[in-house]
Amino acid sequence: MIVDKKGSITIITQENTSVKTLVSRIEADYDAYKDNHFIVNLSSLDSIGLEEIVEFLRLSNTHRADKKSFVIVSNKANLDEMPDEILVVPTLKEAHDIIEMDEIERDLGF
Predict the structure, then answer these.
(1) Buried b or exposed e, range 30-41, using 16+ CB within 10 angstroms
(2) Which of 5, 26, 94, 110 is the 20 to 30 A CA-CA neighbour of 11?
(3) Spatial distance between the Cα atoms of 63 and 79, rounded to a whole number of angstroms
(4) Long-range contacts of 13-20, Cβ-Cβ distance < 8 Å, separation of 24 or more
(5) Mean pLDDT of the 33-54 span
(6) Could you give the dihedral angle defined by the CA atoms of residues 42, 46, 51 and 55, in that order, rounded to the nearest 10 degrees?
């Protein structure tokens, strides 16, 4: 897992571990990241299915309940299959755009 902090955003890039292992490592280190917006970059995976994305659901719900964004990046996921409760986008640029829009909505009280 590669961790890169840029301002108020933490980008976690998946290396060679399984998605379950990645989720476990993020949960173990969560206190270090909880005050930042999250981008989990899974672009290095050859394919990713719904069951792997759902592994992040508890983390996403916890993070979003604290008024922070949680976005997964994967250009291999079938975006039509993804549940509404979790944000999955195909590029890092789109992930940053989502976080920016979320911050605007929070500032406006939505």
Answers:
(1) eeebeebbbbbb
(2) 110
(3) 21
(4) 13/41, 13/43, 13/44, 14/40, 14/41, 14/42, 14/44, 14/45, 15/44, 19/45, 19/48, 19/52, 19/55, 19/56, 20/55
(5) 90
(6) -30
Rounded to whole angstroms, the Cα distance separating 35 from 108 reads 20
**Mean pLDDT, to the nearest integer, of 1-12?**
91
Stretch 76-98: mean pLDDT: 91
For residue 26, give the amino acid letter.
Answer: I
> If you classify domain 2-107 with CATH, what class do you get?
alpha beta
CA–CA distance, 59 with 101 (Å, rounded to integer): 20
pLDDT surpasses 80 at 17: no
Q: Which amino acid is at 89?
A: V
